[in-house]
């Protein structure tokens, strides 16, 4: 009996020791190359040109091709037939396994986006390492150039850098934080079309030279790369890239992106400039927020959609002119009227641009009419995504303007 117990004890010890031994195929930090961003361009000799921006971890000795723009990252580029084929080639070249679990941005060149992106989106969605909150950016320059020009002045090039940069939409409203999950879902949707962040490289040669811009237009009338900003950081994300199905069809400016956020109830806060009612050559700066959701209703007249949008905002005056009393109720009411008119015109312009020019419902207005149909077949037959181009809009803005300045 004692011998039997002794044998069982020995077997248990052997099993425990075996379970504690290291796995030969286990992958540690030293065997992985962490990509913080992916760039996808049209290839020179192959179907694609694939670029990876790798974070350099501590004493990592891995090698990589392409150009190294900082001590914290390096960019490796390869011509390949597909994303999976490119990853395999880079795995072999750098003697490490590419890992996408920390990837925060997928950058697709504008040139490639016009031809269609479904193949690449489906591939990335099916990759178990890719996170659904990875951002989708359409770059007005080559995607490889976008990655190679990541030269942050306040952050190291890492997944955290891209996360903080792209979250700026929360306090500027000049673009939207669009993720891989959002884009994929919109591609398959029957109520709206996809869109992405619009990015580019900001240099003297790309700055907009439109002399017709008024003072209150100047802030938000730019797209990525056009703003007259000079900085060591040359990357810029502003505006939105608009898709019909999986093909790029147009772009929106920063102000149009802000209007989009108001319509879809995603604006957290922003600063805008509106024409001053007291001086035609001056502007009033307002810090705005949306305290409640935009009310949207859709009705059909002879099959044509008529869409009403009621937007509510709160605004605080952030710029002052000593010649005017901004605490006076009559002056505040006048500013409110100007603010309402200014935003109504801009939101209407955004809606008609997406419907008439691009024929794309990126605000998911179709969700308001699905309940009108009794069956799925009836809804599909109505073809909302086609009928949206026939829409007419009525926009009403109700603003509550306050002055932070106290007059003694």
Topology:
Layout: H1 2-20, E1 32-42, E2 48-55, E3 73-80, H2 83-94, E4 97-99, E5 105-109, H3 110-113, H4 118-126, E6 135-139, H5 143-148, H6 159-166, H7 169-172, H8 180-188, E7 195-201, H9 215-218, E8 235-244, E9 247-252, H10 254-263, E10 270-275, E11 283-289, E12 295-301, E13 304-317, H11 329-357, H12 376-382, H13 384-387, E14 392-403
Helix pairs in contact: 4-8, 10-11
What structural class do helix, strand and pairing data support?
Answer: alpha/beta
User: What's the total number of strands?
Assistant: 14
For the report, how would you describe the main beta sheet? Answer: 9 strands, mixed
**Radius of gyration (Å):** 26 Å
Give the averaged pLDDT, no decimals.
83
Q: Name the helicity range.
A: 25-40%
N-C termini distance: 99 Å
Q: What's the tally of helices?
A: 13
Global geometry: globular
Question: Can you walk through the features of this model?
Answer:
The protein is built from 13 helices and 14 strands. It has 408 residues and is of the alpha/beta class. Strands 1, 2, 3, 4, 5, 6, 7, 8 and 9 form a nine-stranded mixed beta sheet that branches. Strands 10, 11, 12, 13 and 14 form a five-stranded mixed beta sheet that branches. A hairpin with a 2-residue loop joins strand 12 and strand 13 (304-317). Helix 4 crosses helix 8 (180-188) and helix 10 crosses helix 11 (329-357). The radius of gyration is 26 Å and the shape is globular. Residues 59-70 have low confidence and may be disordered.
